[in-house]
Amino acid sequence: MNKFVYLSLCLFGFPFASFGQETTLTADELFVKARTEAFDQKNYAEAIKISKQALKQAPEYTDISIFLGRLYTWSDKIDSARTIFSKLESQNVQDEDLYIAYASLEYWNDQAAKAINLVDKGLSFHPTSEDLLLLRTKIDYSNNAYESAEKSVNNLLKLNPKNAEARALAKSIQEYTAKNAIGLNYNFVHFDKQFDDNWHIVALSYKRATPLGSVIFRTNYANKFADNGLQFEVEAYPRLSKMFYLYVAGGYSNNVGIFPKYRTGVSLYANLPHSFEGEVGYRQLYFSDNIWMYTASIGKYYQNFWFNLKTYLTPSNENISQSYAGTVRYYTKGANDYLGFLIGTGISPEENRNNLLDQSIYKLKTFKIGAEYNFSVNRTNLFSISSTYFNQEFRPNEKGNQIDITVGYIKTF
């Protein structure tokens, strides 16, 4: 009889005991379990079930309610999510996460006006919230409200200059906020051996922001080899989407040798996830023959820094000439305030020395290192100064030194 009672307890008692243990989990423990199901297992249905169980124990547990609303959002149950969020809002819940979650829901479902109202309400309770400011920036940027987006992202960068995502957005937004810009650059080049005369290059540019992207008109005057020359250039940055944009350029000069007769260039740029950006493209220079160069680069924003690696590859009949450059920028404030450092090898078609590419088929061996400082005054006055040192093998086994110094000013309006 005792054995019968023992077996009955084993068969029927243990399941009830196990069920009793499950129901004794606290709301906090159930919340942890729901998060584990959602984030580790991606089992949103089970996470919803557990969250509802937790709310039965603690109906006023705001964090669980917000999390349940997020789960409904991720499960594409938009009406259920809205019901939860709107109920919390009507109860005057001031939790920062509520307004991030609710505004994100509306933003992802193309309800920009509603999303902005929610973000602004959240900012009234949490004016220094980086997440809300970043969300406000994204909503305005996607809605082509660039001036408002710039204001939000600048406020965010004042709070945290190390926010890499905000830094990347600030650069993209900048292309739309300054409708007009006039720039003036002066470049001085000194050679210790390669040439007897210093070079002087002056560039005057006008930039116009259009709904399709920026367009730049530039005139370059150069005094090289004790001779003068002019070059006319047009550059455009048409936007294909929020992720992709193009660089398209062309130039002409009647002073071949000082400048290439023609130059063209096209690059496809991509604003990639996690604050990365990439580029692939080509550059073409025509002196007496065409020189074709192919370029690729990868960039990354990290806290206050921007890192970039770029290469130019120039095929010929005998070999492939290569140019590599690594750049680091440290941003002190906004998108136009930074210290930059560069190190690299080879000659790039973007440099004022690009006419040296046509002097010889000999593969020039060049080392370069430089620094630049850019800063803004009252946001509309942009100043820059840079210096680069080159050590170049201009003839086989014969090297010379070169110093470039450039100063620039841009007025935006």
TrEMBL record:
InterPro entries: Beta-barrel_YaiO (IPR030887), TPR-like_helical_dom_sf (IPR011990). Gene3D superfamilies: Tetratricopeptide repeat domain. Keywords: Signal. Residues 179-351 form the YaiO beta-barrel domain. It comes from the Bacteria. The keyword ATP-binding does not apply. Residues 1-20 form the signal peptide. SUPFAM superfamilies: TPR-like. This is YaiO family outer membrane beta-barrel protein.
